[in-house]
Amino acid sequence: MAKYLLAGEDINWLAIMALLTFFIVFSLSIFMVIKRGRNSYNDIARLPLEDGNGENLKSKE
Fold first, then answer.
1. pTM of the entire predicted model
2. DSSP, res 7
């Protein structure tokens, strides 16, 4: 039935599929970042500030 309703319309299906794909990937990435939590990013946030090997610095703390 939907096929007959949209038969007269000139719809760019590739553009719609690209938009849906972008929206799904973007939503999934946002969801994964939120689900991971703030504490898991602390080591990554300190990387530019630390000198040397990360293993040695963890033992000193």
1. 0.53
2. T
